[in-house]
Specification:
- By secondary structure, the chain is mostly beta strands.
- It has a single domain, classed as BH3618-like (Roll), CATH 2.30.290.10.
- It is 7% helix and 32% strand.
- The strands form 2 sheets. Strands 3, 4, 5, 6, 7, 8, 9, 10 and 11 form a 9-stranded antiparallel β-sheet that branches. The protein has a two-stranded antiparallel sheet with strand order 1-2.
């Protein structure tokens, strides 16, 4: 079975039941949103969109922190986190971070608040890494993002 959503940004989306990610606690600041799905758009890679199924107009650009963090990305789950995620020995997990583009075009990621996904049962939880030197606005790319129009416009052409 699948659900069809209409969004301004992405148009019509068909989300199969087995693609739904359940977040019982929601995201920090968005605790009332509990169901999400990934939307992989090739031109945005390595970013993926994390679309709220409870509010389809709300989506977050997310990324694997290992793509942008030089050292091994530290992650530690409490027993309560493991229980909430229903983790069993051998369950594979995925970790991703919410990203943002600042006013100066710098891409940052919330490396202090990663989202952990149990890929077996599609349960996810945003955790907070206390005592870490990582930042909620950790620069994750060494490249400035420029508007697409200015990147593809002929040199000297006004945008």
């Amino acid at each position: 079975m699948s659900k069809t959503l209409m969004t301004r940004q992405w148009g019509e989306l068909k989300i199969a039941d087995d693609q739904v990610i359940q977040m019982p606690d929601g995201l920090l600041g968005f605790e009332d949103l509990h169901r999400f799905a990934f939307l992989d758009v090739e031109e945005f890679r390595p970013f993926t969109w994390f679309v709220s199924l409870d509010d389809p107009e709300l989506s977050f650009a997310v990324a694997d922190p290992q793509c942008f963090h030089a050292a091994r990305y530290p992650i530690s789950l409490s027993e309560a986190d493991e229980n909430m995620l229903d983790l069993e020995p051998g369950d594979p997990i995925a970790v991703f971070v919410i990203t943002a583009v600042g006013a100066q075009g710098q891409v940052t990621g919330n490396l202090k608040g990663p989202i952990v996904l149990n890929t077996r049962n599609r349960l996810a939880k945003q955790i907070v890494t206390y005592g870490s030197s990582l930042s909620i606005r950790q620069p994750i790319l060494n490249h400035e993002i420029v508007p697409l129009q200015s990147a593809v416009a002929p040199k000297g052409a006004g945008v």
